């Protein structure tokens, strides 16, 4: 509990830093003195929404990764190695092409439905695979994702939509403004649902036989998890684009020290996810100021480094 | 009482459980023996509704296992299969506590916690209770799984090869614990066992399967005989009686 409070304090400090890092100069003094309307505007329209978006997307994606890992019973899956993210991008493209007038919420729901179908397909393939080596599972997901991405890009290329697809595929919070991130609150609500159902997901992580023995309907637990993961992923992709590695490395790091009893580990995963995303985004804003590196890139570097560490560390228990 | 009527299960062309009917009265230790592939594990999975059987019915105290709500059944019957692969990193205590899930639904009471600590003590897991499952030896892990199932505190306990990975000392302790649990609390414990001498020394009844059918059924003195062992396993065994228990010697 004490550790959790410390972690929360750390994330709060990062969030505070995120409010004051950027091109236009916003200082505490300027805000409090009420001297600068511009500073207040920047704060309300850009900085606060961006920071909130980072917190919500970071925790949401990390928790989604954790849920997927429990459901697939594999340490190497996350929304971007299970066909989820790619299917959501496909859904975004389809709804943008076929029903361009659809409001953001509607688009997100379509993307969410596609993500759900894609992830269900992934789990369906896993079910039919006789040999489930831990390393084959994410490979199957990556292949499935590649097939879906190929169709997405074929259509996008034909209709000159490649730029939009790139925006959904690469996480970037620089475009987050007031009025354009609020969907992520849905993700936060779903994360709360995941916490309420944490015991069920832990039981599902023990396997189908254990789940049945303990009187739970395995199929129902999996469905609940898939809906949460799909909608959170869709909300993140619709607002700021895919954040790679997050759902992979954060649950693995937390698992090493805290284990996988989700009632206990989920708050850690949510906080660490938010913290890591904040840190990466702040770094991206600082290294080449006044320009920015999108979080898809910074997270790719940091995430892959952590992932390599996880793979190569001594006594690594595969899967 | 568990009543199995005309249960059948096949994988492709191979019939693994062939029209099995059996009645298991409540109370006592019942061992299921037979050669590899005789259908013991499959029968156990059918009884515990882990595996749906295309034909036949299984009733546990009058409840059909395929239609009774899972959580109702989970308070009456528990099952542990063999070869439990675990990707989730849980501590021994957390795993055992999940055995209370059918009763507590994730909100453990003082009574639930008492159950957990008692089972940890019975299975001598105090020293490793705080450790993660993947840090344990195979035998310790097996005892933790059994502890979880015992913590579920059901009237019927089904265990598929519970002595797997256990050394002689722990195997004996485990069988004694089953015996005590059955005698003191009136539980019905159904075990799939490979060691027929453990079955002989600790069971009230032995059920021997061959080719998906029940070949023999009865108390140990009727089953542990050269003729039955020859029929069931196809090996010659000499039977010795030691301290009133029948022991089969088949190491020749």
From TrEMBL, chain A:
Protein's membrane topology: Multi-pass membrane protein
Keyword terms, alphabetized: Cell membrane, Membrane, Transmembrane, Transmembrane helix, Transport
SUPFAM superfamilies: ABC transporter involved in vitamin B12 uptake, BtuC
Record-linked Gene3D superfamilies: ABC transporter involved in vitamin B12 uptake, BtuC
UniProt-annotated location(s): Cell membrane
Transmembrane segments: 48-68, 105-126, 135-157, 221-254, 266-287, 293-312
Annotated PANTHER family: FERRIC ENTEROBACTIN TRANSPORT SYSTEM PERMEASE PROTEIN (PTHR30472), PETROBACTIN IMPORT SYSTEM PERMEASE PROTEIN YCLN (PTHR30472:SF27)
Recorded family membership: Belongs to the binding-protein-dependent transport system permease family. FecCD subfamily.
Protein name: ABC transporter permease
UniProtKB/TrEMBL annotation, chain B:
Coiled-coil residue spans: none
Keywords assigned: ATP-binding, Cell membrane, Ion transport, Iron, Iron transport, Membrane, Nucleotide-binding, Transport
Keyword ATP-binding among UniProt keywords: yes
Main localisation: membrane
Domain ABC transporter: 2-236
SMART domains: AAA (SM00382)
Record's subcellular location: Cell membrane
Membrane topology: Peripheral membrane protein
Any Pfam family: ABC_tran
Domain of life of the source: Bacteria
CDD domains reported for this sequence: ABC_Iron-Siderophores_B12_Hemin
Keyword Protein transport: no
Name of the protein in question: ATP-binding cassette domain-containing protein
Source organism: Azospirillum endophyticum
């Amino acid at each position: 509990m004490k550790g959790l409070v410390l972690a929360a304090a750390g994330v709060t400090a990062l969030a505070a830093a995120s409010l004051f890092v950027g091109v236009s100069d916003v200082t505490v003094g300027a805000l409090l003195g009420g001297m600068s309307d511009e500073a207040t505007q920047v704060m309300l329209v850009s900085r606060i929404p961006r920071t909130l978006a980072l917190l919500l997307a970071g925790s949401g994606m990390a928790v989604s990764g954790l849920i997927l890992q429990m459901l697939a019973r594999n340490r190497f899956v996350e929304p971007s190695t299970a066909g989820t993210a790619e299917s959501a991008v496909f859904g975004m493209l389809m709804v943008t092409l076929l029903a361009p007038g659809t409001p953001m919420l509607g688009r997100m729901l379509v993307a969410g439905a596609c993500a759900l179908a894609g992830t269900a397909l992934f789990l369906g393939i896993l079910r039919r695979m006789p040999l489930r080596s831990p390393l084959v599972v994410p490979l199957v997901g990556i292949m499935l994702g590649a097939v879906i991405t190929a169709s997405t890009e074929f259509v996008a290329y034909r209709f000159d939509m490649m730029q939009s697809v790139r925006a959904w595929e690469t996480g970037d919070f620089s475009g987050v403004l007031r009025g354009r991130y609020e969907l992520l609150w849905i993700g936060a609500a779903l994360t709360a649902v995941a916490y309420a159902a944490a015991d069920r997901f832990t039981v599902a992580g023990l396997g189908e036989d254990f789940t049945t023995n303990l009187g739970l309907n395995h199929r129902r637990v999996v469905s609940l998890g898939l809906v949460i993961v799909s909608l959170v992923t869709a909300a993140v992709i619709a607002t700021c684009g895919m954040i790679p590695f997050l759902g992979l490395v954060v649950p693995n790091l937390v698992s090493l020290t805290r284990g996988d009893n989700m009632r206990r580990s989920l708050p850690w995963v949510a906080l660490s996810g938010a913290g890591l995303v904040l840190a990466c985004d702040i770094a991206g804003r600082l290294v080449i100021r006044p320009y920015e590196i999108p979080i898809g890139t910074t997270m790719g570097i940091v995430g892959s480094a952590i992932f390599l560490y996880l793979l190569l560390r001594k006594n690594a228990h595969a899967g | 009482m568990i009543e199995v009527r005309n249960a059948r299960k096949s994988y492709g062309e191979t019939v693994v459980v062939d029209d099995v009917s059996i009645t298991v009265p409540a109370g006592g230790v019942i061992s299921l023996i037979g050669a590899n592939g005789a259908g013991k594990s499959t029968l156990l999975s059918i009884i515990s509704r882990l595996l749906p059987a295309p034909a036949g019915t299984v009733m546990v105290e009058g409840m059909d296992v395929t239609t009774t709500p899972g959580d109702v059944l989970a308070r009456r019957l528990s099952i542990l299969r063999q070869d439990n692969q675990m990707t989730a990193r849980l501590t021994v205590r957390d795993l055992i506590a999940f055995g209370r899930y059918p009763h507590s639904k994730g909100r453990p009471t003082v009574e639930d916690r008492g159950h957990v600590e008692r089972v940890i003590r019975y299975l001598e897991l105090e020293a490793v209770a705080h450790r993660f499952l993947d840090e344990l030896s195979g035998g310790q892990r097996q005892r933790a799984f059994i502890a979880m199932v015992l913590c579920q505190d059901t009237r019927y306990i089904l265990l598929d090869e519970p002595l797997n990975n256990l050394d002689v000392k722990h195997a004996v302790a485990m069988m004694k614990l089953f015996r005590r649990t059955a005698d003191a609390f009136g539980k019905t414990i159904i075990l799939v066992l490979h060691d027929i001498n453990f079955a002989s020394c600790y069971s009230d009844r032995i059920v021997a399967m061959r080719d998906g059918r029940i070949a023999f059924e009865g108390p140990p003195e009727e089953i542990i005989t050269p003729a039955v062992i020859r029929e069931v396993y196809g090996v010659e065994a000499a039977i010795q009686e030691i301290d009133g228990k029948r022991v089969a010697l088949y190491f020749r």
